[in-house]
Amino acid sequence: MKKKDQLLQLLMEETECQQEEAELALSLSDNNLEKAITTIGFFLKFITVFKIKLIFPKENIYGLIQITINMKTYDILRFSLVFSHNPSIYEISANTDWFSFEKAIFSVRLDAGTIESYTQKVEENLKLYIQQAVNKIAIVSNNEITTIIKTFFHPVIVETETVREELNLIQFKKLPDDNTKQNTTSFTDYNLGFIKLDVEIFEDSDGKTAKKIKEGDIVLSVITDERDIAHYLAHLIGGKKNDNMIPLPAIVKKISSKNDDFEIYLQYTPSIIGFAKVKNNIKLKVLETHNKPWWNKIIPWK
User: Fold this and answer.
1) What is the pTM of this model?
2) Residue 280 Cα distances to 93, 258, 301, angstroms
3) 295 in helix, strand or coil?
4) What spatial distance separates the first Cα and last Cα of the chain, rounded to whole Å?
């Protein structure tokens, strides 16, 4: 296979584009695969996000749903929802960006007013119902999505508000800058702040004891939190694969001693914090110190 054909095949697999689209992107980028992926990501808008707010007026239930669909294949790429008795969640704007709306959904799932059992019961059934329904229609529009949802809950009366957002591949694969979103987006009665997850730090006989760990060190951890929000966030930040939690590096942000234990706070993103309790004599796996990269230990001449 020629090099150009190999590039063409790789580009089509990576971006799910058609051959003529891949050929155009490669020609515009002088057969540079990385540039071609960026190019195709910018001009192919085939990902649509539907942000939906619901009210069950007779039951006093309020809901938020987000559905992300690949409009070429009609596959549901992401799906999240929450139902609550708290009316303030309906004040969350569906006009905010998809990432902030999705994050708001999982923040609400931690709220005391959330109907957890109903949310879990509906989630998989509704996702499957929507997937089957969109495969049977020619155009997936706001009206079609609204009809599908109302049909699913029939005969219960549901009032909905649906906002559509179109994304290209780059916008979808690269999560928005969380610091920017915190400064520009607000949710009525909800301060998303930090989401704290229970984690464990890997042990290492050649590592550092907890009392020698410093802020800024990077340690190897795994998310052990059993909540739905934890499994979702682990998948989002790369700590979950094929339904299994996998090791994840994290920055040590704060350390405090308590009796014979140390409480260590790890930072994964600006709004996702891990919390671990460690015995003072346990040695931990440190990938990088605050002043010396981990690869210096492997490649000392660097």
Assistant:
1) 0.55
2) 46, 10, 33
3) helix
4) 38
